[in-house]
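Case study 2.
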Amino acid sequence: MKYIYIVILVFLFSNCKNDNRQDSSNKIEEIIKVKPMVEDTVQLIDPDIKSLDKSITIQLKQKQLIEKEDEREDLQKLIIEKRYLIDKKDYTINFKYPLLNESFRPTNINFNDFINHYYVNVTKTESDILENKLLCDSIALSTFREERFIDYKIYNVNDQLVSVLFYKENFYSGAMHPSYSFDCFNFELNKGVFMTYEDFFNQGSEDELLIIINEKIIEKTGKGDTYYDCWELSSDDFFESKNNFVLNDTYVEFYFDDCVMCPSYTGTYSIELSLVDLLSVLKKHDLNFLIF
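Prediction:
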């Protein structure tokens, strides 16, 4: 009889152990099933966070350009600031630009004629906006307001040369952010003529200067900061923008449209090159304002 009780107790004890093992295995299976759901949730959030980060950096990049210092206040006697504003139901045109005081030099009329009659062409801008709206089949898109904005930075070199940077902000229908494009003009005040790449740099030096620019871009991207995801310029892009530069006493600054040198969300729109770095490609004559 005593042995029978012992056998029964052993049997009951073994059943309890098996029940505990089954409960444990069930809990492990539940944990394994739940874990992938947490990972999927994180993956769904990531694209929204990245999109928000890029939106913020785009705004910061544009703000840095707008707030960049120039010599406008120092040149108040030379320049006459003009503004052209059209605010209609479908679009806004807001142009701010400088003219040169012709009482200082009669040759300043050459600059003013070019800006008034060719560069600030409001009639063409209006027709382009209306044409874009006519070509759009979407009723929703055609109700978006178009915005065209031009502002400028101006610099003075040796009291004989003014460098003007025009930056255009274009806000197209359906776009999340405005895009920026640039035009630079260097005007020789004494002769009243516009100067180009060939007036400052050696003939045929574009390839050598492109190497210098790309080395500077690589240096910037290597340091990280705001230049991550930027890339080297192609030969075609540089040749198209080679006249897009402003001058300073110590450096030349080349400007490039959105997404030519850097994506819209990082980097800057320009690259500065010191005159020391450019000695091998600068023209060596007294009429070159960059020779020191």
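Residues 202 and 281 are 6 Å apart (CA to CA).
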